[in-house]
Amino acid sequence: MELKIFLLIASICCFAITHVSGYCSITLSQDESLRPKLYKNIGSRKALIHTEGLSYQFNENEVITADCETRVQSPSQFSGKRSIDCKCTTSYIQIDGTSLSKNLPVQCDKIKWNLYESSKQFSWCPTPMASYLLARPLNNIYEYLAGVCYNFDQQQILNIHYAAAYQLSKYQYPTRLQNYSPTVEILDIPNKFVARRIKPTNFKNVEIQEWMKFSQYENHSIIQDPNLYNKSYDKFGGFIELDWWPSLRTGNWRLYEKALREHIEADKEIYDVLAGVSNSIAVPSYENVCRENYTMIDVIYRDNQKIPLYVWHYLKSLKEANGTDVVVIGVNSAFSDFYKEKDLIFCTDICHKLDWLKSAQATFHYKTLGLIFCCDANEVKLSKRLEGIPMASSKPVNSGAQLLPLPLKRPKEEYDDFNEPIRMET
Ligand SMILES: *[C@@H]1O[C@H](CO)[C@@H](O)[C@H](O)[C@H]1NC(C)=O
Ligand SMILES: *[C@@H]1O[C@H](CO)[C@@H](O)[C@H](O)[C@H]1NC(C)=O
Ligand SMILES: *[C@@H]1O[C@H](CO)[C@@H](O)[C@H](O)[C@H]1NC(C)=O
Ligand SMILES: *[C@@H]1O[C@H](CO)[C@@H](O)[C@H](O)[C@H]1NC(C)=O
Which residues form the signal peptide (predicted)? Predict the structure, then answer.
């Protein structure tokens, strides 16, 4: 009797031990951007593994491929490779005949994006602004993260074009940028595009000084989605910063960005985003006018630097290619009480009509959290009230003398929403 129990226990132990000893695990970094994609090898095919948590366990004789978007950083013996095959054996993980610990940390290099001048001006970037590409060489071609239109005169970003897609989507970068090539690389970005924080003493006018003390504008990135920022945009310093009114940035704009991110993940959405700044803030002045009256005076610091009045996202859904494009506009002014509301909100607000924005938009009209409104992109263009937003452009006029007879059917030139000419197949 006792012998039987002993044998039973012994066999359970044996089973448990051999079973446990068959497991291997790959441990992953806390930082999501450093994690490889893991694939199960099934015959000649590979199936993507959806990992939950910071380690992945697999069985003896299984082979897991760890694939880095950049290259492997650890295990260091394999640093520089794009992907490694990890085979679980009884007592170790084997990679290319090298035996390593059964508990193996695998980590990728951080994605490094470089800054280049673009071969030609983006069609949505008006002259004399400068067009820059954030890109990296990858297997002899370039991969593009974003396009930045920069205003040298005011030393501030005008707009940035990037893609916002759900986590496992193949579409992470905007295809539109492939019409442009990188030329000169700009090195040492933080020293070339120096970050700056406004000090009230930057202003000579005493009234403006007082208003600036009160409103506390801060330089922060135009990219406010924390995942996007941490993954790719935290190295560009002043190049992509603007002077934010903190109440808008940490108030309604944060709520909007959160709702957008949740919508993108939940609905497996993909957007081409053009994010930009327009116009400039003004503050009330009571000098030279009767007591209860005021005039609005422009806030300009250093030589020609301005604080944008509007921060906006032009959202172009690639999934619903036939849907209407929306522009979400934040009022970056601590002084909206001094404007008539219709002077600030210059188009029909449709935030409440967007399903994914329904719960977030409840506070969009509280001025203390920063006003936000949403409009049909066409209405915004027609209003001509947002400086720097791409306008629907008409066919360029041919002013030269007409030497050749006109073709019977003149090919119609069409432009898409960021003014990129649509090539017609002929
Ligand atoms: C803002 O500018 C200052 C320099 O004036 C810089 O140190 C800082 O990193 C910039 N960015 C943020 C987010 O504070
Ligand atoms: C982004 O990085 C900051 C600083 O390293 C960190 O505090 C924050 O939690 C990160 N956010 C995300 C979403 O990863
Ligand atoms: C305030 O200004 C408006 C127009 O600028 C003028 O019509 C009005 O009389 C002024 N009010 C006072 C009290 O001065
Ligand atoms: C796009 O929408 C218009 C009007 O709503 C419709 O006439 C057209 O057929 C749609 N096109 C596609 C490709 O769905």
Answer: 1-22
